[in-house]
Fold:
Amino acid sequence: MKKLHPNVVTLLADIEAYRKITGEDRTAFGLGALNDGNFISRVEHGRQPSFSTIDRVYRYIEARKKAVRKKAVR
Structure:
């Protein structure tokens, strides 16, 4: 496996932390965030996501976290 850039390692860790909280599987995450069900696997195998892709991932995570918080409050 290719050595990953530290920023990509952080991105993958953040995705896994989010998935652990929500129970969302890898494919569903990739499809929801980027319409790419293999996104996580591709990044783990050396694909370097662009800054705009990384931004989309974090926006997706934040939006979903807010939705979960709103549900919990009701």
